[in-house]
Amino acid sequence: MWKTQVASAAALIALSGCAAIQGQSAADSGQILEQAGFRREPSAQAATGSSRQSLNVRQLTAASEGGAPRYEFHDPDFCRCVYVGGEREYAELQRVRAARVDQHYRELRAFNPSANSPGPMVWGAWNPQGLDLE
Question: pLDDT tens-digit profile of 69-98?
Answer without folding.
Answer: 999 999 988 889 999 999 999 999 999 999
